[in-house]
Design brief:
96% of the residues lie in helices and 0% in strands. By secondary structure, it is mostly helical.
Length: 160
């Protein structure tokens, strides 16, 4: 690199330090990439004006590096978007599964309540039949006793 090329390199490095701080605080990665591209353009221009091939080659390498950082940043952003989309999809699936479990549980509880109610109704019917049978037995016993009294009275009436 020529003496003038070295002077340009040193000057750009001195300008770069405060510019990098400002870019990092204000614009993040995109601002730093823009700063790298501007640096590469200035080096390319200086290299062309001074006829310094090393400065021009350095500018080409810096531009390629800025392109790669931009590509990496774009890929990171896309990866984050895809990951977020996946997280949202997974959350929707979990929500759907919870809802399905809740519906299945509710249906099972409803079915169990119906079965318990049916069993209680059957038991009530059985008890009712048992009570009816007892009532019928008592009635039969009363009728039997009444018939025995009538028979006894007829016997007495026939004797007198």
């Amino acid at each position: 690199m020529s003496v003038l090329g070295m002077a340009v390199d040193t000057y750009l490095k001195m300008l770069r330090a405060p510019a990098r701080l400002a870019a990092g605080r204000l614009g993040g990665d995109a601002a730093e990439i823009a700063l790298d591209r501007a640096d590469a353009r200035l080096r390319n221009l200086a290299g062309a004006l001074l006829g310094d091939d090393e400065l021009t080659s350095d500018a080409i390498r810096r531009r390629a590096a800025a392109d790669e950082r931009e590509r990496a940043l774009r890929l990171d952003t896309e990866a984050e978007r895809v990951a977020e989309s996946g997280r949202q999809r997974a959350e929707r699936r979990r929500d759907s599964a919870r809802e399905q479990r809740a519906r299945r549980t509710e249906r099972a509880e409803t079915r169990a309540r119906r079965e318990r109610l049916g069993a209680a109704e059957e038991k009530a019917k059985a008890l009712n039949h048992t009570e009816e049978a007892l009532e019928a037995k008592k009635e039969a016993e009363r009728l039997g006793k009444a018939a025995a009294r009538v028979k006894e009275q007829r016997k007495r009436g026939a004797r007198t």
